[in-house]
Design goal:
444 residues, alpha/beta, OB fold (Dihydrolipoamide Acetyltransferase, E2P), Rossmann fold, 3 domains, 7-stranded mixed β-sheet, 21 strands, globular
């Protein structure tokens, strides 16, 4: 019998004292499973037969469910998804941070549980007959792609564009990048769609080579889909399979699309980071601002500030916002967005967070609050050490990883801070991922 869900989305069962993680199993399932890997404290198993289904099982909407590595929980009732996401945060705080009782609130649901993503990344590959395919990766396989029929995470327009691009590339017999020989042209198709403005960017990531056919494709897409305001080509000559290029060419339209979040507009370029769920992003930024409680005379430090999204929300209440971001292109985008929205009390600096904090300590700078929104790896130990030395009255921690959040909370709260509340927010329905916003106060 499956008891619960583990942090990676697998079903959790026990055999005597042995913990067993079962892929594709849900709490309440009675299953027959085959153990495929054993460790000293746990084992991993594959589902062989579903003897009795959990009452929380639902019929997946997508025909690719089980093959695709994207929506692991599409067969789990959405309200139960929220409960298990909250439980994941709770268990991380207990087991990693050692909090016997934490001020954890129930996860806030997503406004939309389908068609909510504003960005999807699709991979070019070839099938066994050598025919070009375009789709997503098989579950657990970075080197295998299945041919996509439709995805229910991004809009129907996105699905149509995928099919048009695939048909065109097949007709023109364009080559696909080969992971072994490092030859071929096409690598990725990235589609960004601004949720509130409707504007679409089509970004084709390729190896170096002739792009004349892609310009013809761009003309066709812009004509057929009026909402396509940007089509770009990113050239990635490196072996690493990443959908980011060293050089970018505009094939049609402009180099960015415009999204509206709250009262603000944001220019989104091909390689700039932007929260993938626009409707939930507004809730996230408003929540972070409410937790920060900025006043008109306050100065707030926004570490890992990205394109300025949270900074702008803070700027409505605070006197001055200083954003720190390590990516030069992203800093440039933040500065453009500040000018676009006529925001004059936000300033952005290109620097690593730990380096800026070291300088701030030397200069004896003071902040009324510090907001951190780090990547999944969490805060660098030096960032935590310097934050504690900087000693702001409030720290607001936005996290997309309960494990690294709990690790960092332990370090912050052992010496100087108290965790006042933590609010999970579901940005990615049908996956085990969960975003959180935490409020910490300096102990007096």
């Amino acid at each position: 019998m499956i008891e619960s869900l583990a942090s990676g989305g697998q079903g959790l069962a026990r055999l005597n004292s042995l913990v067993i993680f079962v892929r594709d199993a849900l709490p309440g399932d009675k299953v027959k499973a085959k153990i495929v890997k054993t460790k000293s404290s746990f084992a991993e198993a594959e589902l062989i037969d579903l003897i009795q289904a959990s009452p929380d099982r639902v019929t997946p909407r997508c025909s690719h469910f089980g093959t695709c590595g994207g929506c692991q929980w599409q067969n789990l009732d959405y309200l139960r998804q929220l409960e298990y996401k909250t439980l994941q945060v709770k268990e991380a705080l207990e087991h990693i941070a050692g909090f016997a009782a934490s001020p954890l609130l129930p996860a806030l649901p997503a406004q939309e549980i389908y068609f909510y993503r504003n960005k999807m990344e699709f991979s070019f590959s070839s099938d066994l007959e050598g025919r070009l395919i375009l789709g997503l990766h098989l579950a657990g396989r970075f080197d295998q792609v299945f041919d996509l029929e439709a995805c229910f995470l991004q809009s129907e327009i996105s699905n149509q564009i995928v099919q048009r691009v695939k048909t065109f590339c097949r007709e023109k017999r364009l080559s696909v990048y080969d992971l072994k020989s490092y030859t071929g042209l096409l690598r990725f198709l990235v589609i960004k769609q601004a949720h509130n403005s409707g504007e679409v960017m089509v970004n084709i990531v390729t190896q170096a080579g002739d792009a004349s056919e892609l310009k013809i494709l761009a003309e066709k897409l812009v004509k057929e889909f009026p909402m396509v305001k940007s089509m770009v080509r990113n050239i990635n000559t490196k072996k690493a399979q990443i959908a980011i290029g060293e050089k970018e060419e505009v094939l049609a339209g402009r180099s960015f699309i415009v999204e509206r979040i709250g009262a603000f507009q944001f220019q989104i370029s091909a390689n700039s980071f932007f929260q993938s769920n626009s409707s939930q992003a507004e809730k996230l930024y408003s929540l972070a601002t409410r937790f920060a409680q900025p006043g008109p005379q306050d100065t707030v430090l926004d570490l890992y500030s990205g394109t300025g999204t949270i900074s702008f929300f803070l700027a409505q209440k605070a006197g001055r916002i200083l954003g720190i971001e390590s990516n030069p292109q992203t800093v440039e985008d933040a500065q453009k967005n500040a000018r676009l929205n006529r925001i004059e009390n936000c300033h952005f600096i290109c620097s690593e967070a730990k380096d800026y904090l070291a300088l701030a300590l030397l200069r004896k700078e003071e902040f009324n609050a510090v907001l951190v929104d780090p990547p999944r790896s969490g805060l660098h130990p030096q960032v935590i050490e310097n934050l504690i030395r900087l000693s702001p009255p409030k720290i607001i921690y936005v996290s997309c990883n309960p494990a690294t959040l709990a690790r960092d909370m332990k370090m912050l709260c052992e010496s100087a801070y108290s965790l006042e509340k933590i609010q999970p927010l579901d940005m990615f329905p049908h996956t085990y991922h969960i975003e959180t916003v935490s409020q910490l106060f300096r102990r007096t």
